[in-house]
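Chapter summary example.
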Amino acid sequence: MELEGEVVEEVVKRLRRAQGQIGGVIRMIEEGRDCADVLTQLAAASRAIDRAGFKVVATGLRECIASPGKTTPSEERLERLFLSLA
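The structure predicted for these 86 residues follows.
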């Protein structure tokens, strides 16, 4: 699967945001910050990563539907991909 330019930009943007949030979480832990604040930032980073993954999967499905001549992944394979993000 090859991602389109705007999709790549969106996915990379989300991953860079998560990267920054994870860096912030590391600093918070090193500084001994409040547990609730650390967990809030971890949850935000997790959501950013999940959304990037969902975007990649959604784009892949759209590509499979739009290009029926290509080899389409099996239902089991698609299910495993979805569950890997859960």
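To summarize the output: The chain has a mean pLDDT of 84.
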